[in-house]
Amino acid sequence: MAARKRKKTRKAQYLISTDQEELGKDSDMIMGKVRAQDNMHFTLYNDGIKADQAPGSRLDEVREELVYIEFEPKKPKETRPLRFNVAVPALVQGKPKDVKALGDKTHSELEKMLKRPLDNTENITILVCKEADRNPATGRCSMDFKGRVTMSSVKNIQLIVQGPGASSPPIVVLQFGKCSSSDYTMDVTHPLSLLQAFGIVISLFENDGHA
User: Fold this and answer.
1) For the whole model, what pTM was predicted?
2) Burial of 72 (0-12, 13-18, 19+ CB in 10 A)
3) From CA 102, how far away is CA 64, in angstroms rounded?
4) 50: nearest Cα among 125, 124, 117, 103
5) Residue 171: which CATH number?
6) Which residues of the chain have pLDDT under 50?
7) Nearest 5°: CA angle at 203, between 43 and 60?
């Protein structure tokens, strides 16, 4: 997969394609789109169309929400790793629930569900950042990436499932981190798809934790 940031948009938008040479907004190779509400809130959609553009009652053509990402803002001079919450449609018999925003253009449906987690345990899976271990001698935070991440970066993260579906001890379902001056590595497992994981890590390049 490849991603391209769209130009001349008021808020950050990325197109995700299976071919880096075919990244126009009308390309048949587009798999999904990451759209920012601001630099703290992001939604990943599939390649469907907006609800107000769907012809007649063709709801099957309306884009689905695949991921909602909400960053926790840092306080001034705070140096902790990134913290953010992620909501993805719950899997039912191996298939994600169909989540579409059909009316409200301001807030995504997954965002609304994340605000009411106890009412939506069957509809969404919530992911949170695994807390890093802090070295009391140096004050620095560290995480075990099993050798996959070799350089420190604010973008180095590990996500675990919170609430229903969580395991004990927690299993890292997505990890992302820096391995050279310009390269990063991503590892992902159930319940995330590759597209969902790619959409999540794209949002990291628009946010350092500060509002």
Assistant:
1) 0.89
2) middle
3) 10
4) 103
5) 3.20.90.10
6) none
7) 25
